[in-house]
Queue: 2 jobs
Job 1
Amino acid sequence: MVKLSLGGLSRTEVMISPRPRPVIGITAGVLLLCILFFSFTTLYRPRGSEQLREKIFEPDEPTATQSLASTPTPELMPLFPEDETNVVLDYDEEDEGNGAPISDAEASKLEYMAPLANETLGFEKIFVINLPARTDKRDALTLAASLTHMKLTFLPAVYGPDVPDKAVPMGTNRTLLWETNLGSWRSHMNALREVVENGYSSALILEDDMDWDVNIHSQLRSLAVGTQYVTSTMQPHRTAISSPYGSAWDLLWVGHCGEVVHTEPPHYRNYTVHPDPTVPPRDHCTGQHRFKEYPARTRWIHETGSPVCTFAYAVSLAGAQKILYRQSLVGLDHGPFDNSLSWMCGAGELDMKCVSVTPPLFEQHMRKGSMGGDSDIRQGDPKAQREKAYTKNIVWSTRMNIDRLIMGKEPIDQFEEEGKAAERRKKEEGE
């Protein structure tokens, strides 16, 4: 919860002489002091203080989002109603009692959850890997971040041919790997090295075509509570926790194009949230998981299985050190960067502790127009045209609502039923 403070106002003590003074003079002096006090507090009231009280979700309408365009620092409000049970815990019977999770409403009140509302989503930095020539992607991501209270640091991506043979990891066949994959690998290594060189405690690393829900700050609370539960450190009432995500993880895989959720032992510490209003209907959930076999609008925070694509992931300092060592100094012997990283997590190499979220919180945005510019790794057909933009797995897409957020309008659910869409358009036309 974001707290506001007007700052400490120094009190001026006035010593009044015991000699009798005219009543008029005393009254005028008191009035003057009152005028000065109210003038001072008015002039120095923090700007935007009224907007800071706005909620991401209306309390009586948990699925109706509110525009963040005019909200400098969003409050971290409960994402779900307090009277519903939204968490299902999957664990081995022998592990019962090893950390007790808390509800979303309780989590929103914890002091160590407050950083989730900051500009870097509770991490020390947010890095974006971006080819300098792709100014279009940087422009779009800059707008999206500014409208959802995020601060991005852009790092220049690397072209594969610019990586000399001497710098290619031992045993890597650059021809089989593809030059574009080699450039992607080196770009991620540079981002990880940035974390290590500066000693950042954590960082979120994004590719430059990402999209996310306008409610990303509140979504991350479930990730934070779930991560602590999955890593067996969920003890908010007994242990002082400095980070909302805890400290027992190396990598949080928050953006991917497919992941497997193991619901049977030994992968038993799953944190399952439902109904999550920011999860699409089952027919619109994509990935490797069997979504249709589970309740609608379910999200899992779980031990990493075998994800594909490194759309978005967070690393701790220790995690960055492990990945940089293994994939740069030892060798890139499990294919492209995302496959090698997935292997590290799955095999637990260097005691890697990885947590995934499925469906993901970050996804690749597919823009309207030419499909030739979708990816800088796989070249698409420049003649092929996409009639309508979309983003998989994201309900209130930030990228698809940029114009509405700028205008201060309610963001649109891209999966809303046609009847509701028609009703909304009719209402807007009448305003």
Job 2
Amino acid sequence: MVTSNHDSSSSGNEARLIVTFFAKSRPSNAPSQTVPPHLEAFRSQSLACGPTFSSLLSPRVAPASLNLSSSRTLAPGIFQSIYSVTTPFPDPSRLRHHASIAAFEALHALEIVFDSIPLDPSAEPLRPVRLAVFDMDSTLIDQEVIDELARSIGITSAVASITARAMNGEIPFEQSLRERLALLKGVKADVWEDLKNVVTIAKGAKELVGHLREKGVITVVVSGGFAPMANWLKEQLGLDSAFANHLIVSPSDGSFPYPHLSGDLSPDHPIVVPEYKQLVLEKIAKERSIPLSETFVVGDGSNDLLMLGAAGLGVAWRAKERVQKEAPQRLNGTTLSDLIYLLGGHTEEHSP
């Protein structure tokens, strides 16, 4: 289990514990004022869920005291409760991983995301975010680019099987990357233009990034994939920076009568391994004088776990099995715009 870099223990004697409930059957695009019939029960029960859940939560945060401050419906199938807690403050990641919480989720067909921040009556009730860092493949885009490169030369299954093992943490990422690249020797150097017509931006990514940019948040993609696609995505979404692996391009030769990928990584650029992803997060935060508690990270693979744990709020999105189990927080859905509700999006408020 990777614990989160939450900061509530460093400020005063009280903190906010933010608990967001997501119904697994929630609609992806329903207007906020419309509640489909199959979610009517969830909505009515959720407003009464605060006290019920509080009784489950109280023993988990003991010896700290717990008081329900507010409850609100954010959208059909999405509900949030905010608690005030006293020292010693609970770790949101440990709460998420507790067996009783998992049982509650299973019983009510929910996914629950926990966060905690210092109690500041003059501030927004949710975590302040000034830097957001995203993985690219299977997060901001729907595909794994390296698998699409393999598809272009008819070796999809060989490369995809290594990708799956790497993203689930079964083999070291750098080893898996080099093994896959060796198989891709000979791919045309201009393949990126073709891939731009194949790759699809994940549903809700534009809305999520747009929401962050409107709030002045620095947005970054850091990918174990490849620079041509990361830079393209940066332009498509209006991100501030992009970091990814650089490949060597070889000229035409006897084996390949056209410029082609050599199958090797450029020695002039860092390899984007898990440690480098975390380093990018920490380096940008330091350069911009942003505390890590004010950072937000989203990713899906085992190579994202370090940066997810280093962030103030790290959420594994539609993640691989191992990552679902180990990430500080996780959420599965059909649109990345659901993550906006963890950052202040809501429609109705109900005081207890």
